[in-house]
Design brief:
The complex is a heterodimer of chains A (about 190) and B (about 260). With about 190 residues, chain A is an alpha+beta fold. Chain A has a domain at about 35-155: Immunoglobulin-like. Chain A is built from two helices and five strands. In chain A, the strands form two sheets. Chain A has a three-stranded antiparallel β-sheet with strand order 2-4-5, with no helix packed on it. In chain A, β4 and β5 form a beta hairpin. The radius of gyration of chain A is 19 Å and the shape is globular. With about 260 residues, chain B is mostly helical. Chain B has one domain (about 10-90, about 155-255). In chain B, about 40% of the residues lie in helices and about 5% in strands. Chain B has helices spanning about 10-40, 65-75, 155-165, 170-180, 190-195, 205-210, 225-235, 250-255, and strands at about 125, 130-135. Chain B has a two-stranded antiparallel ribbon with strand order 1-2. In chain B, β1 and β2 (about 130-135) form a beta hairpin. Chain B is globular and about 55 Å long. Chain B starts with 7 loop residues before the first helix and ends with a helix. Classes of the chains: A alpha+beta (about 190), B mainly alpha (about 260). At the A-B interface, loops of A face loops of B.
Chain lengths: ~190, ~260
């Protein structure tokens, strides 16, 4: 009798810890790409903190993470034609003016991240990025018009194609005639980027 | 523990008794709920009492309205897609910087004339093949966060309703006391505004949360007296008519990237 009561309590606690909404969202992300190792370059464009956040706690636990693409989602291409940009630096500060100890930089998959161990910011966060431009060592600075209020995953809001609930993925520049030319890298070795 | 009986007849009889008991219990419970529901209707005058609320006036079709700048500040600072621009969160805010108001209106696909979408001057029109939408949406493909269509009057109207409606009675007191006697029709100024603190905007959760005077998942949005704070508070308390206060404070807040 006592054992079954203990089991019931344990079961209640277990059920209480699950978040079916988050679980469904993680499930919807699909399986890993078999061609990409589970590393710093995996799952570009997906909301990193779904797993690498406080809910799942997958190591390394991140506070801000995302992917930077070259151009906006191309509605004419089925996958939007994602071209990741390597070497984009992120300028982030929190509501008390604190900044990460090192400047985050994107890798060949366009991914960047800051771990909780490195920096534990107080929301909201200001964000700007500087993407590389040939012949200009400072690159081009683009700042986000709003703050990050609580979701450290870029893709939590910047999800694929633009729609009434998403501005589309994070990109460097519109694809105009005088825009810098970015191409997909032929190979991509897992590195952090910074 | 009930004694185990191998006699199927007895089991059957026992089952019938259990069932009868359940029906009786169920009927008693339903009776109890019924009594509670009926009793709750016996509230006397309170049952038909109405509460009048007021808010800072806003004309969604007036492109010079003071709320436009206030709305834009709140859209940028509070209405981000991961906060009050998320559909699961109270105080929902729409706008070009965050969540877009769902357009067209649900179930309006078959509209043929503008009158089906709203009275003349409401800014709602029938777009053939699409439905009822705001007339400022000239290019539907650009109607997304950060897209070419700016915040529409319909979105501002919903933002205004969200702000005024989050604590309507308290908002009424703060606004009407600040506005002065005889501004809010039917409002008992003498009874509500005798206490000088009645007009304190920090009584409003909206103001306190942004100042982080109480727990706020979105953190410290601004401190008391900052541009964003002045923009919001001066609108609530009526100082928006002073050009030195507003929209200047709102504009200065929006210039901070």
């Amino acid at each position: 009798m006592r054992a079954s009561a203990l089991f019931s309590v344990a079961l209640l606690f277990t059920i209480g810890c699950a978040n079916p909404v988050a679980d469904a969202a993680i499930e919807a992300l699909g399986p890993e790409d078999p061609a990409v190792p589970q590393s710093e370059i995996h799952r570009p464009g997906q909301p990193c903190l779904m797993c690498h956040g406080p809910y799942k706690g997958v190591e390394p636990e991140m506070v801000v993470a995302g992917t930077i693409f070259a151009y906006p989602f191309d509605l004419g291409a089925e996958d939007g034609n994602p071209i990741p940009v390597e070497g984009v630096t992120l300028e982030i500060s929190d509501s008390f003016g604190s900044t990460p100890p090192t400047t985050p930089k994107t890798n060949c998959a366009g991914n960047f991240y800051i771990t909780k161990e490195e920096w534990n910011p107080a929301y909201p966060l200001r964000v700007a990025m500087r993407y590389p431009v040939e012949g200009d060592e400072d690159g081009e600075r683009v700042s986000m018009g709003t703050r990050i209020s609580r979701d450290g995953s870029c893709a939590g809001c910047h999800e694929d194609a633009p729609n009434q609930g998403s501005p589309g993925w994070v990109y460097c520049t519109q694809k105009t005639a005088d825009a810098p030319v970015f191409t997909k890298p032929e190979t991509c070795t897992p590195t952090r980027g910074d | 523990m009930r004694p185990f009986s191998p006699n199927p007849k007895r089991v059957h009889q026992h089952g019938v008794i259990e069932m009868k008991r359940s029906i009786v219990l169920c009927a008693a419970a339903l009776f109890g709920i019924g009594v509670t529901v009926v009793s709750s209707g016996c509230l006397g005058e309170n049952a038909t009492a109405t509460v009048k609320t007021a808010c800072v006036p806003f004309d969604a079709q007036d492109d010079e309205d003071a709320f436009i700048a206030v709305s834009e500040v709140l859209e940028r600072r509070c209405g981000t897609l991961d906060c009050h621009g998320a559909i699961a969160r109270p105080l929902r805010l729409y706008g070009n910087a965050g969540l877009r108001r769902p357009e067209p209106d649900l179930g309006s696909e078959g509209c043929t004339v503008n009158e089906e979408c709203g009275p003349a001057g409401s800014g709602r029109i029938c777009k053939q093949g699409l439905g009822c939408i705001d007339d400022r949406i000239t290019n539907y493909a650009q109607y997304y966060p950060g897209g070419g269509i700016g915040t529409t009057p319909s979105e501002r109207r919903d933002n205004w309703a969200a702000i005024c409606g989050i604590e309507p009675e308290l908002f009424t007191v703060v606004y009407c006391c600040a506005a002065g006697e005889n501004v809010c029709g039917g409002f008992d100024y003498a009874a509500n505004c005798a206490d000088p603190e009645a007009v304190d905007p920090e009584r409003l959760t909206l103001v306190r949360k942004a100042r982080l005077r109480e727990k706020h998942k979105g953190g410290l949005v601004w401190n008391e007296g900052d541009d964003g704070d002045t923009c919001l508070v001066s609108w609530i308390t009526g100082a928006y008519s002073d050009p030195n206060v507003n929209p200047q404070a709102c504009i200065q807040e929006l210039q901070k990237l």
